[in-house]
Write a structure and sequence with these properties.
This protein is mainly beta.
Protein backbone atom coordinates (compact mmCIF):
# COMPACT_ATOMS: atom_id res chain seq x y z
CA UNK A 1 0.00 0.00 0.00
CA UNK A 2 1.34 3.42 -0.94
CA UNK A 3 1.07 5.96 1.89
CA UNK A 4 0.71 9.56 0.68
CA UNK A 5 3.33 12.01 1.96
CA UNK A 6 1.02 13.79 4.41
CA UNK A 7 -1.05 10.78 5.46
CA UNK A 8 1.61 9.09 7.55
CA UNK A 9 0.43 10.78 10.76
CA UNK A 10 -2.34 8.24 11.33
CA UNK A 11 -2.64 6.30 8.10
CA UNK A 12 -3.46 2.87 9.49
CA UNK A 13 -6.29 4.26 11.61
CA UNK A 14 -7.90 5.64 8.46
CA UNK A 15 -8.77 2.18 7.16
CA UNK A 16 -12.53 1.51 7.11
CA UNK A 17 -13.70 -0.32 10.21
CA UNK A 18 -17.12 -1.70 11.06
CA UNK A 19 -18.65 -1.09 14.48
CA UNK A 20 -21.68 -3.14 15.46
CA UNK A 21 -24.15 -1.65 17.93
CA UNK A 22 -26.36 -4.20 19.63
CA UNK A 23 -28.85 -3.92 22.51
CA UNK A 24 -31.23 -6.25 24.26
CA UNK A 25 -34.05 -5.83 21.75
CA UNK A 26 -32.00 -7.47 19.00
CA UNK A 27 -30.97 -4.29 17.21
CA UNK A 28 -27.93 -4.76 14.98
CA UNK A 29 -26.53 -1.95 12.84
CA UNK A 30 -23.18 -1.71 11.07
CA UNK A 31 -21.30 1.52 10.34
CA UNK A 32 -18.14 2.18 8.29
CA UNK A 33 -15.90 4.23 10.58
CA UNK A 34 -12.81 6.33 9.87
CA UNK A 35 -10.32 8.03 12.15
CA UNK A 36 -8.50 10.68 10.16
CA UNK A 37 -6.51 13.59 11.58
CA UNK A 38 -4.89 15.99 9.11
CA UNK A 39 -1.37 16.98 10.12
CA UNK A 40 -0.69 20.45 11.49
CA UNK A 41 1.54 22.73 9.39
CA UNK A 42 2.70 26.29 9.93
CA UNK A 43 0.37 29.16 8.99
CA UNK A 44 2.74 30.80 6.54
CA UNK A 45 1.69 34.01 4.74
CA UNK A 46 1.33 32.00 1.57
CA UNK A 47 -1.05 29.53 3.20
CA UNK A 48 -3.06 32.29 4.91
CA UNK A 49 -3.39 34.01 1.55
CA UNK A 50 -5.22 30.91 0.27
CA UNK A 51 -8.14 31.37 2.69
CA UNK A 52 -11.43 31.78 0.89
CA UNK A 53 -14.17 34.21 2.00
CA UNK A 54 -16.89 36.30 0.35
CA UNK A 55 -15.89 39.13 -1.96
CA UNK A 56 -14.87 42.29 -0.16
CA UNK A 57 -13.54 40.54 2.94
CA UNK A 58 -9.91 40.42 4.00
CA UNK A 59 -7.92 38.53 6.63
CA UNK A 60 -5.12 39.74 8.88
CA UNK A 61 -3.27 38.23 11.83
CA UNK A 62 -4.36 40.05 15.00
CA UNK A 63 -1.93 38.11 17.21
CA UNK A 64 0.19 34.96 16.98
CA UNK A 65 2.34 32.65 19.07
CA UNK A 66 -0.49 32.17 21.59
CA UNK A 67 -0.34 28.35 21.82
CA UNK A 68 -3.69 26.79 22.86
CA UNK A 69 -5.92 29.78 22.06
CA UNK A 70 -9.49 28.90 23.01
CA UNK A 71 -12.37 31.24 23.93
CA UNK A 72 -12.55 34.94 23.01
CA UNK A 73 -14.43 37.76 24.73
CA UNK A 74 -14.35 41.47 23.90
CA UNK A 75 -14.92 44.16 26.54
CA UNK A 76 -16.95 47.31 25.75
CA UNK A 77 -13.72 49.31 25.43
CA UNK A 78 -12.39 46.88 22.82
CA UNK A 79 -9.98 44.96 25.06
CA UNK A 80 -9.70 41.36 23.88
CA UNK A 81 -9.50 38.49 26.36
CA UNK A 82 -8.46 34.96 25.43
CA UNK A 83 -8.55 31.78 27.53
CA UNK A 84 -5.90 29.12 27.07
CA UNK A 85 -6.95 25.74 28.41
CA UNK A 86 -3.61 23.94 28.15
CA UNK A 87 -1.74 26.85 29.72
CA UNK A 88 -4.46 27.41 32.35
CA UNK A 89 -4.64 31.18 31.99
CA UNK A 90 -6.38 34.18 30.45
CA UNK A 91 -4.57 36.69 28.25
CA UNK A 92 -5.41 40.35 27.67
CA UNK A 93 -4.68 41.89 24.27
CA UNK A 94 -5.18 45.51 23.22
CA UNK A 95 -5.15 47.34 19.89
CA UNK A 96 -4.85 50.92 21.08
CA UNK A 97 -3.88 52.41 17.71
CA UNK A 98 -6.71 50.68 15.84
CA UNK A 99 -4.52 49.12 13.15
CA UNK A 100 -6.07 45.67 13.51
CA UNK A 101 -3.00 44.19 15.23
CA UNK A 102 -2.58 43.58 18.96
CA UNK A 103 -0.09 45.90 20.66
CA UNK A 104 3.06 44.42 22.19
CA UNK A 105 2.95 41.12 24.05
CA UNK A 106 -0.26 39.74 25.60
CA UNK A 107 -0.63 40.14 29.36
CA UNK A 108 -1.61 37.23 31.62
CA UNK A 109 -4.50 38.47 33.77
CA UNK A 110 -5.70 35.24 35.40
CA UNK A 111 -4.41 31.76 36.17
CA UNK A 112 -6.61 28.79 36.90
CA UNK A 113 -6.14 25.15 35.95
CA UNK A 114 -8.49 24.26 33.12
CA UNK A 115 -9.45 27.88 32.38
CA UNK A 116 -11.87 27.89 29.47
CA UNK A 117 -15.17 29.76 29.23
CA UNK A 118 -15.04 33.53 29.77
CA UNK A 119 -17.67 36.27 29.82
CA UNK A 120 -17.90 39.98 30.67
CA UNK A 121 -20.93 41.49 32.40
CA UNK A 122 -21.49 44.80 34.22
CA UNK A 123 -17.78 45.52 34.54
CA UNK A 124 -16.95 42.09 35.91
CA UNK A 125 -15.07 39.20 34.37
CA UNK A 126 -16.33 35.62 34.70
CA UNK A 127 -14.19 32.52 34.19
CA UNK A 128 -15.19 28.87 34.26
CA UNK A 129 -13.01 25.78 34.60
CA UNK A 130 -14.14 22.17 34.67
CA UNK A 131 -15.71 22.41 38.14
CA UNK A 132 -15.46 26.06 39.23
CA UNK A 133 -16.93 29.40 38.28
CA UNK A 134 -14.99 32.55 39.27
CA UNK A 135 -15.62 36.29 39.07
CA UNK A 136 -13.25 39.27 39.23
CA UNK A 137 -13.55 43.02 38.87
CA UNK A 138 -12.09 44.53 35.71
CA UNK A 139 -9.67 47.31 36.61
CA UNK A 140 -9.39 50.54 34.57
CA UNK A 141 -6.29 49.21 32.75
CA UNK A 142 -8.12 45.99 31.78
CA UNK A 143 -6.32 43.80 34.26
CA UNK A 144 -8.37 41.74 36.69
CA UNK A 145 -8.77 41.98 40.42
CA UNK A 146 -8.61 38.84 42.60
CA UNK A 147 -10.70 35.91 41.40
CA UNK A 148 -13.55 34.97 43.75
CA UNK A 149 -15.07 31.50 43.69
CA UNK A 150 -18.82 31.61 42.99
CA UNK A 151 -19.51 27.94 42.25
CA UNK A 152 -17.28 25.01 43.10
CA UNK A 153 -19.47 22.00 42.39
CA UNK A 154 -20.17 21.97 38.67
CA UNK A 155 -20.77 18.42 37.39
CA UNK A 156 -17.80 16.22 36.55
CA UNK A 157 -16.77 16.53 32.95
CA UNK A 158 -15.54 13.25 31.48
CA UNK A 159 -15.32 13.48 27.69
CA UNK A 160 -16.48 17.09 27.47
CA UNK A 161 -14.60 19.19 30.00
CA UNK A 162 -14.71 22.51 28.15
CA UNK A 163 -17.36 24.62 29.86
CA UNK A 164 -18.50 27.80 28.13
CA UNK A 165 -20.48 30.70 29.58
CA UNK A 166 -22.39 33.76 28.40
CA UNK A 167 -24.79 36.27 29.93
CA UNK A 168 -28.31 36.32 28.59
CA UNK A 169 -30.46 39.40 28.04
CA UNK A 170 -32.17 38.59 31.37
CA UNK A 171 -28.93 39.21 33.25
CA UNK A 172 -28.49 35.54 34.13
CA UNK A 173 -25.38 33.53 33.35
CA UNK A 174 -25.79 30.51 31.07
CA UNK A 175 -23.27 27.68 31.27
CA UNK A 176 -22.91 24.75 28.90
CA UNK A 177 -22.07 21.52 30.74
CA UNK A 178 -21.36 18.85 28.13
CA UNK A 179 -21.92 15.13 28.43
CA UNK A 180 -19.38 12.85 30.06
CA UNK A 181 -19.49 10.43 27.14
CA UNK A 182 -20.34 9.83 23.51
CA UNK A 183 -23.71 8.29 24.39
CA UNK A 184 -24.83 7.23 27.86
CA UNK A 185 -27.48 7.78 30.51
CA UNK A 186 -25.88 10.45 32.67
CA UNK A 187 -25.91 9.93 36.44
CA UNK A 188 -25.78 13.68 37.07
CA UNK A 189 -28.78 15.49 35.52
CA UNK A 190 -26.67 18.64 35.07
CA UNK A 191 -24.52 16.96 32.41
CA UNK A 192 -25.51 17.42 28.75
CA UNK A 193 -27.37 20.62 29.60
CA UNK A 194 -27.28 24.37 29.58
CA UNK A 195 -27.44 25.65 33.16
CA UNK A 196 -28.93 29.00 34.22
CA UNK A 197 -27.02 30.58 37.11
CA UNK A 198 -27.59 33.74 39.13
CA UNK A 199 -24.69 36.22 38.75
CA UNK A 200 -23.81 35.76 42.42
CA UNK A 201 -23.75 31.97 41.99
CA UNK A 202 -26.32 31.39 44.74
CA UNK A 203 -28.86 29.57 42.59
CA UNK A 204 -28.87 27.54 39.41
CA UNK A 205 -31.32 25.50 37.39
CA UNK A 206 -31.21 23.33 34.29
CA UNK A 207 -32.42 25.51 31.44
CA UNK A 208 -32.41 22.82 28.72
CA UNK A 209 -31.24 19.20 28.53
CA UNK A 210 -30.42 16.49 26.01
CA UNK A 211 -27.58 18.59 24.55
CA UNK A 212 -24.45 16.49 24.10
CA UNK A 213 -22.04 19.42 24.02
CA UNK A 214 -23.31 22.86 23.04
CA UNK A 215 -20.10 24.85 23.31
CA UNK A 216 -21.39 27.65 21.08
CA UNK A 217 -24.59 29.56 21.88
CA UNK A 218 -25.89 33.12 21.64
CA UNK A 219 -29.09 35.17 21.60
CA UNK A 220 -30.70 36.55 18.46
CA UNK A 221 -30.42 40.34 18.81
CA UNK A 222 -33.98 41.03 17.59
CA UNK A 223 -35.98 38.17 19.14
CA UNK A 224 -33.98 37.37 22.30
CA UNK A 225 -34.24 33.66 21.54
CA UNK A 226 -31.31 31.42 22.43
CA UNK A 227 -29.66 29.43 19.63
CA UNK A 228 -26.83 26.93 19.87
CA UNK A 229 -24.85 24.38 17.86
CA UNK A 230 -24.67 20.95 19.44
CA UNK A 231 -21.80 18.53 18.81
CA UNK A 232 -23.12 15.28 17.38
CA UNK A 233 -22.50 11.64 18.36
CA UNK A 234 -19.37 9.94 17.00
CA UNK A 235 -18.93 6.50 15.42
CA UNK A 236 -22.12 6.59 13.32
CA UNK A 237 -20.20 6.74 10.05
CA UNK A 238 -18.78 9.55 7.93
CA UNK A 239 -22.10 11.29 7.32
CA UNK A 240 -23.92 10.83 10.61
CA UNK A 241 -24.63 12.49 13.10
CA UNK A 242 -25.07 15.97 11.58
CA UNK A 243 -24.06 18.86 13.79
CA UNK A 244 -27.28 20.34 15.20
CA UNK A 245 -28.50 23.91 15.19
CA UNK A 246 -31.14 24.20 17.90
CA UNK A 247 -33.48 26.90 19.08
CA UNK A 248 -32.96 26.36 22.79
CA UNK A 249 -36.04 26.99 24.92
CA UNK A 250 -36.40 26.72 28.66
CA UNK A 251 -37.54 23.33 29.94
CA UNK A 252 -37.08 21.51 26.65
CA UNK A 253 -35.16 18.29 25.98
CA UNK A 254 -33.17 17.95 22.76
CA UNK A 255 -32.90 14.21 22.27
CA UNK A 256 -29.42 13.11 23.31
CA UNK A 257 -28.47 10.35 23.90
CA UNK A 258 -31.35 8.32 22.46
CA UNK A 259 -32.69 10.52 19.66
CA UNK A 260 -30.79 12.85 17.37
CA UNK A 261 -31.02 15.22 14.41
CA UNK A 262 -34.54 15.35 12.96
CA UNK A 263 -35.84 12.53 15.15
CA UNK A 264 -33.59 9.62 14.24
CA UNK A 265 -33.20 6.85 16.81
CA UNK A 266 -29.73 6.07 18.14
CA UNK A 267 -29.48 2.26 17.95
CA UNK A 268 -27.20 1.43 20.87
CA UNK A 269 -28.59 3.27 23.89
CA UNK A 270 -31.53 2.37 26.13
CA UNK A 271 -33.46 4.91 28.26
CA UNK A 272 -33.64 4.20 31.99
CA UNK A 273 -36.83 3.24 33.76
CA UNK A 274 -38.16 1.19 30.83
CA UNK A 275 -39.07 4.34 28.93
CA UNK A 276 -39.34 3.51 25.25
CA UNK A 277 -37.40 5.35 22.58
CA UNK A 278 -40.70 6.39 21.05
CA UNK A 279 -41.62 8.06 24.34
CA UNK A 280 -38.20 9.71 24.55
CA UNK A 281 -38.59 10.96 20.99
CA UNK A 282 -42.04 12.38 21.74
CA UNK A 283 -40.56 14.37 24.62
CA UNK A 284 -37.63 15.69 22.54
CA UNK A 285 -37.30 18.71 20.25
CA UNK A 286 -35.65 18.04 16.86
CA UNK A 287 -32.92 20.22 15.40
CA UNK A 288 -33.77 23.22 13.23
CA UNK A 289 -30.90 22.74 10.77
CA UNK A 290 -28.03 20.30 10.38
CA UNK A 291 -24.45 20.71 9.20
CA UNK A 292 -21.81 18.26 7.97
CA UNK A 293 -21.24 15.43 10.44
CA UNK A 294 -18.23 15.60 12.77
CA UNK A 295 -17.37 19.20 11.81
CA UNK A 296 -17.23 19.97 15.58
CA UNK A 297 -18.97 23.31 16.24
CA UNK A 298 -17.29 25.62 18.72
CA UNK A 299 -17.99 29.27 19.62
CA UNK A 300 -21.07 30.96 18.12
CA UNK A 301 -21.87 34.68 17.90
CA UNK A 302 -24.60 36.74 16.31
CA UNK A 303 -23.19 39.63 14.33
CA UNK A 304 -23.76 42.87 16.24
CA UNK A 305 -21.23 45.09 14.48
CA UNK A 306 -21.74 47.71 11.80
CA UNK A 307 -18.76 47.27 9.49
CA UNK A 308 -19.99 44.15 7.63
CA UNK A 309 -22.59 44.57 4.90
CA UNK A 310 -26.04 45.07 6.38
CA UNK A 311 -27.19 41.74 4.96
CA UNK A 312 -25.19 40.11 7.78
CA UNK A 313 -27.25 41.82 10.47
CA UNK A 314 -29.13 39.21 12.49
CA UNK A 315 -26.98 36.36 11.15
CA UNK A 316 -24.69 34.20 13.26
CA UNK A 317 -21.20 32.82 12.79
CA UNK A 318 -19.90 29.50 14.14
CA UNK A 319 -16.37 28.12 14.20
CA UNK A 320 -16.04 24.49 13.12
CA UNK A 321 -12.92 23.08 14.74
CA UNK A 322 -12.72 20.08 12.43
CA UNK A 323 -13.33 16.36 12.41
CA UNK A 324 -11.29 13.38 13.45
CA UNK A 325 -14.00 10.73 12.93
CA UNK A 326 -14.51 11.32 9.19
CA UNK A 327 -12.71 10.81 5.87
CA UNK A 328 -12.59 13.18 4.08
CA UNK A 329 -12.31 15.73 6.87
CA UNK A 330 -15.10 18.16 7.66
CA UNK A 331 -15.06 21.46 9.53
CA UNK A 332 -11.87 23.55 9.72
CA UNK A 333 -13.93 26.61 8.77
CA UNK A 334 -16.21 29.40 9.90
CA UNK A 335 -19.83 29.06 8.81
CA UNK A 336 -22.59 31.63 8.54
CA UNK A 337 -26.09 30.87 9.83
CA UNK A 338 -28.53 32.95 7.80
CA UNK A 339 -31.65 34.22 9.58
CA UNK A 340 -34.80 35.91 8.30
CA UNK A 341 -37.49 37.22 10.61
CA UNK A 342 -35.60 35.72 13.53
CA UNK A 343 -35.72 32.20 12.09
CA UNK A 344 -32.73 30.20 10.84
CA UNK A 345 -32.85 29.61 7.09
CA UNK A 346 -29.56 27.99 6.10
CA UNK A 347 -25.95 27.33 7.04
CA UNK A 348 -23.26 28.24 4.50
CA UNK A 349 -19.44 28.44 4.55
CA UNK A 350 -18.01 31.87 5.38
CA UNK A 351 -14.25 31.26 5.67
CA UNK A 352 -12.63 28.08 4.33
CA UNK A 353 -9.10 27.05 3.42
CA UNK A 354 -7.72 26.17 6.84
CA UNK A 355 -7.47 22.64 5.43
CA UNK A 356 -4.46 22.55 3.11
CA UNK A 357 -2.61 20.18 0.78
CA UNK A 358 -5.80 18.60 -0.49
CA UNK A 359 -7.21 18.13 2.99
CA UNK A 360 -4.24 16.19 4.37
CA UNK A 361 -2.91 19.08 6.48
CA UNK A 362 -4.33 22.07 8.33
CA UNK A 363 -3.06 25.48 9.41
CA UNK A 364 -5.75 26.10 12.04
CA UNK A 365 -8.44 24.49 14.12
CA UNK A 366 -11.00 27.31 14.51
CA UNK A 367 -12.19 27.71 18.10
CA UNK A 368 -12.83 31.15 19.62
CA UNK A 369 -15.04 33.71 17.90
CA UNK A 370 -15.97 37.28 18.81
CA UNK A 371 -17.03 40.53 17.19
CA UNK A 372 -14.40 43.20 17.82
CA UNK A 373 -15.32 46.77 18.78
CA UNK A 374 -14.63 47.92 15.19
CA UNK A 375 -17.06 45.31 13.82
CA UNK A 376 -14.43 42.91 12.50
CA UNK A 377 -14.65 39.21 13.34
CA UNK A 378 -11.91 37.64 15.48
CA UNK A 379 -11.18 33.91 15.37
CA UNK A 380 -8.86 32.02 17.70
CA UNK A 381 -6.97 28.97 16.40
CA UNK A 382 -6.12 26.55 19.20
CA UNK A 383 -3.63 24.54 17.12
CA UNK A 384 -1.09 27.14 15.95
CA UNK A 385 -2.10 29.84 18.44
CA UNK A 386 -3.18 32.55 16.02
CA UNK A 387 -6.00 35.08 16.32
CA UNK A 388 -7.26 35.93 12.84
CA UNK A 389 -9.12 39.15 12.06
CA UNK A 390 -11.69 39.19 9.25
CA UNK A 391 -12.78 42.63 8.07
CA UNK A 392 -14.88 44.02 5.26
CA UNK A 393 -13.10 46.36 2.87
CA UNK A 394 -16.07 47.42 0.76
CA UNK A 395 -19.06 49.66 1.45
CA UNK A 396 -21.90 48.29 3.59
CA UNK A 397 -25.24 48.12 1.82
CA UNK A 398 -28.82 48.12 3.05
CA UNK A 399 -30.29 45.45 5.28
CA UNK A 400 -31.98 42.49 3.61
CA UNK A 401 -32.56 40.05 6.47
CA UNK A 402 -35.49 41.58 8.32
CA UNK A 403 -33.15 42.82 11.05
CA UNK A 404 -32.10 46.47 10.76
CA UNK A 405 -29.03 48.18 12.16
CA UNK A 406 -31.37 50.05 14.49
CA UNK A 407 -32.64 46.69 15.77
CA UNK A 408 -29.09 45.49 16.41
CA UNK A 409 -28.38 48.61 18.47
CA UNK A 410 -31.35 48.03 20.77
CA UNK A 411 -31.05 45.82 23.85
CA UNK A 412 -31.75 42.17 23.14
CA UNK A 413 -35.27 41.29 24.38
CA UNK A 414 -35.26 39.35 27.64
CA UNK A 415 -38.79 37.94 27.39
CA UNK A 416 -37.95 34.47 25.99
CA UNK A 417 -35.44 33.84 28.78
CA UNK A 418 -37.90 34.91 31.49
CA UNK A 419 -40.76 32.84 30.15
CA UNK A 420 -40.39 30.07 32.73
CA UNK A 421 -39.95 32.57 35.57
CA UNK A 422 -43.20 34.29 34.65
CA UNK A 423 -45.07 30.99 34.26
CA UNK A 424 -43.89 29.58 37.59
CA UNK A 425 -43.79 32.61 39.90
CA UNK A 426 -46.43 34.10 42.14
CA UNK A 427 -48.45 30.87 42.33
CA UNK A 428 -49.89 29.28 45.46
CA UNK A 429 -48.54 25.88 46.45
CA UNK A 430 -50.51 23.01 44.93
CA UNK A 431 -52.63 22.19 48.00
CA UNK A 432 -53.83 25.81 48.20
CA UNK A 433 -55.05 26.01 44.62
CA UNK A 434 -58.86 26.03 44.42
CA UNK A 435 -58.93 23.37 41.69
CA UNK A 436 -57.12 20.92 43.96
CA UNK A 437 -58.83 21.70 47.28
CA UNK A 438 -61.03 19.10 48.94
CA UNK A 439 -62.70 18.69 52.32
CA UNK A 440 -61.29 15.20 52.82
CA UNK A 441 -57.92 15.03 54.55
CA UNK A 442 -55.31 12.32 54.63
CA UNK A 443 -52.40 12.08 57.03
CA UNK A 444 -48.81 12.43 55.75
CA UNK A 445 -45.87 11.24 57.84
CA UNK A 446 -42.17 10.58 57.34
CA UNK A 447 -39.68 8.42 59.18
CA UNK A 448 -37.14 11.26 59.19
CA UNK A 449 -39.13 14.52 58.94
CA UNK A 450 -41.31 15.73 61.82
CA UNK A 451 -44.04 18.21 60.94
CA UNK A 452 -42.81 21.71 61.69
CA UNK A 453 -39.26 20.58 62.49
CA UNK A 454 -35.91 20.77 60.67
CA UNK A 455 -35.34 18.46 57.73
CA UNK A 456 -32.24 16.28 58.26
CA UNK A 457 -29.24 17.46 56.27
CA UNK A 458 -28.95 14.19 54.37
CA UNK A 459 -32.09 15.08 52.42
CA UNK A 460 -30.61 18.42 51.37
CA UNK A 461 -28.81 18.91 48.09
CA UNK A 462 -25.98 20.41 50.14
CA UNK A 463 -25.35 16.92 51.51
CA UNK A 464 -26.48 13.44 50.41
CA UNK A 465 -29.52 14.67 48.46
CA UNK A 466 -31.44 11.49 49.27
CA UNK A 467 -35.23 11.57 49.03
CA UNK A 468 -37.09 11.03 52.32
CA UNK A 469 -39.42 8.16 53.07
CA UNK A 470 -43.08 9.23 52.98
CA UNK A 471 -46.25 7.45 54.08
CA UNK A 472 -49.91 8.45 54.05
CA UNK A 473 -53.28 7.21 55.17
CA UNK A 474 -55.19 5.40 52.45
CA UNK A 475 -58.42 6.68 50.91
CA UNK A 476 -61.02 4.11 49.72
CA UNK A 477 -62.01 6.18 46.68
CA UNK A 478 -58.41 6.66 45.51
CA UNK A 479 -57.17 5.15 42.26
CA UNK A 480 -53.74 6.78 42.48
CA UNK A 481 -51.66 9.15 44.58
CA UNK A 482 -49.56 12.18 43.70
CA UNK A 483 -46.65 13.68 45.67
CA UNK A 484 -45.69 17.34 45.19
CA UNK A 485 -43.00 19.01 47.31
CA UNK A 486 -42.68 22.81 47.09
CA UNK A 487 -40.76 25.67 48.70
CA UNK A 488 -42.82 28.90 48.73
CA UNK A 489 -39.93 30.91 50.24
CA UNK A 490 -37.56 30.61 47.29
CA UNK A 491 -36.48 33.59 45.19
CA UNK A 492 -36.84 34.76 42.49
CA UNK A 493 -39.09 31.86 41.42
CA UNK A 494 -41.67 30.79 43.98
CA UNK A 495 -42.88 28.27 44.75
CA UNK A 496 -39.90 26.12 43.79
CA UNK A 497 -40.99 22.56 42.98
CA UNK A 498 -38.60 19.98 44.49
CA UNK A 499 -40.43 16.74 43.73
CA UNK A 500 -43.23 15.63 41.43
CA UNK A 501 -44.38 11.99 41.46
CA UNK A 502 -47.67 10.60 40.18
CA UNK A 503 -49.51 7.44 39.15
CA UNK A 504 -48.56 5.91 42.47
CA UNK A 505 -50.99 2.93 42.55
CA UNK A 506 -53.83 2.99 45.09
CA UNK A 507 -52.39 -0.18 46.61
CA UNK A 508 -49.29 1.74 47.74
CA UNK A 509 -49.36 3.95 50.83
CA UNK A 510 -45.68 4.80 51.13
CA UNK A 511 -42.49 5.56 49.23
CA UNK A 512 -39.12 4.37 50.53
CA UNK A 513 -36.12 6.61 51.14
CA UNK A 514 -33.63 7.13 48.30
CA UNK A 515 -35.73 6.74 45.17
CA UNK A 516 -34.07 6.89 41.78
CA UNK A 517 -33.90 10.35 40.20
CA UNK A 518 -35.32 9.44 36.80
CA UNK A 519 -38.56 10.02 34.87
CA UNK A 520 -39.98 6.53 35.42
CA UNK A 521 -39.45 4.19 38.36
CA UNK A 522 -39.35 0.43 38.11
CA UNK A 523 -39.73 0.04 41.88
CA UNK A 524 -42.46 0.98 42.66
CA UNK A 525 -43.06 0.00 39.07
CA UNK A 526 -44.64 2.55 36.78
CA UNK A 527 -44.48 5.55 39.11
CA UNK A 528 -43.70 8.64 37.03
CA UNK A 529 -41.63 11.63 38.10
CA UNK A 530 -41.57 15.10 36.63
CA UNK A 531 -39.15 17.95 36.14
CA UNK A 532 -39.22 20.28 39.10
CA UNK A 533 -38.14 23.89 38.96
CA UNK A 534 -34.50 22.80 38.91
CA UNK A 535 -35.21 21.13 35.56
CA UNK A 536 -34.46 17.54 36.54
CA UNK A 537 -36.70 14.56 37.21
CA UNK A 538 -37.05 13.11 40.70
CA UNK A 539 -36.21 14.44 44.13
CA UNK A 540 -34.09 17.59 44.37
CA UNK A 541 -33.29 18.29 48.00
CA UNK A 542 -33.57 21.63 49.81
CA UNK A 543 -30.96 24.09 48.60
CA UNK A 544 -31.76 27.55 49.97
CA UNK A 545 -29.06 30.23 49.64
CA UNK A 546 -26.51 30.09 52.46
CA UNK A 547 -27.55 32.45 55.25
CA UNK A 548 -31.26 32.54 54.41
CA UNK A 549 -33.80 32.15 57.18
CA UNK A 550 -35.30 28.63 57.21
CA UNK A 551 -37.37 27.86 54.14
CA UNK A 552 -40.61 25.88 54.43
CA UNK A 553 -40.92 22.68 52.39
CA UNK A 554 -44.47 21.41 51.87
CA UNK A 555 -44.70 17.65 51.36
CA UNK A 556 -48.16 17.35 49.77
CA UNK A 557 -49.91 14.08 48.97
CA UNK A 558 -53.07 13.97 46.85
CA UNK A 559 -55.46 11.06 46.37
CA UNK A 560 -57.00 11.00 42.88
CA UNK A 561 -59.97 9.16 41.43
CA UNK A 562 -57.95 8.15 38.36
CA UNK A 563 -54.50 7.48 36.95
CA UNK A 564 -53.14 10.41 34.98
CA UNK A 565 -52.31 10.47 31.28
CA UNK A 566 -49.31 12.75 31.83
CA UNK A 567 -45.95 11.85 30.24
CA UNK A 568 -42.94 11.17 32.46
CA UNK A 569 -40.76 14.24 32.84
CA UNK A 570 -43.64 16.72 32.67
CA UNK A 571 -43.52 19.94 34.67
CA UNK A 572 -45.62 21.01 37.65
CA UNK A 573 -48.20 23.04 35.73
CA UNK A 574 -48.88 20.18 33.33
CA UNK A 575 -49.36 17.85 36.29
CA UNK A 576 -51.56 20.27 38.25
CA UNK A 577 -53.78 20.89 35.22
CA UNK A 578 -54.34 17.15 34.80
CA UNK A 579 -55.15 16.73 38.51
CA UNK A 580 -57.87 19.41 38.53
CA UNK A 581 -61.28 17.93 39.29
CA UNK A 582 -59.89 14.54 40.30
CA UNK A 583 -58.61 15.13 43.86
CA UNK A 584 -60.60 13.17 46.45
CA UNK A 585 -58.35 13.82 49.46
CA UNK A 586 -55.14 15.67 50.29
CA UNK A 587 -52.74 16.15 53.17
CA UNK A 588 -49.34 17.59 53.91
CA UNK A 589 -46.50 17.94 56.37
CA UNK A 590 -44.08 20.86 56.50
CA UNK A 591 -40.35 20.63 57.11
CA UNK A 592 -37.87 23.47 57.58
CA UNK A 593 -34.38 23.83 56.23
CA UNK A 594 -31.64 26.49 56.39
CA UNK A 595 -27.98 26.33 55.40
CA UNK A 596 -25.84 28.64 57.52
CA UNK A 597 -22.38 27.47 56.45
CA UNK A 598 -21.31 26.95 52.86
CA UNK A 599 -20.04 23.37 52.52
CA UNK A 600 -16.55 22.83 51.07
CA UNK A 601 -16.63 22.40 47.31
Amino acid sequence: MNIPRFASRIALACLPLVAVAQQGDGTRVGFPIHVFKPAKVDPTPERIAQLKMPAGFAVDVFASGLKNARVLAVAPDGTVYLSRRDQGDVLMLKDTDGNGVADDEPVVVANRSGAHGIAIHDGRFYLVTVRELFVADIRPDGRLGPLTLLVGDLPDAGQHANRTIAFGPDGMLYLSAGSTCNDCNENNPENATILRIAPDGKSRTIFASGLRNTIGFDWHPATGELWGMDDGIDFLGDDDQPEELNRIEGGRQYGWPHVYADGRIYPQSTPVGQITKAQWKAASTPMVLGWTAHASPMQMVFYRGSSFPAEYDGDAFVTMRGSWNRDPSSGYEIVRVRFAGGQAQSITPFVTGFLTDGGTTHIARPMGLAVAKDGSLLMADDANGVIYRFSYQGTAGSAATGTTRADAARPTPAGPMRKLDVANSGLPIASERPALRTATALQVVSGSIVDGATIPARHSDYADGVSPALAWSTVPAARSYVVIVEDPDSKPVAPFAHWLAWNIPASIDRLPEGLQEQPRLTEPDGVLQGKGTRGSAGWYGPHPPVGDAPHRYYFQVFALDRMLDVPAGSDRETLVAAMAGHVVAEGRLVGLYAQQVKPPK
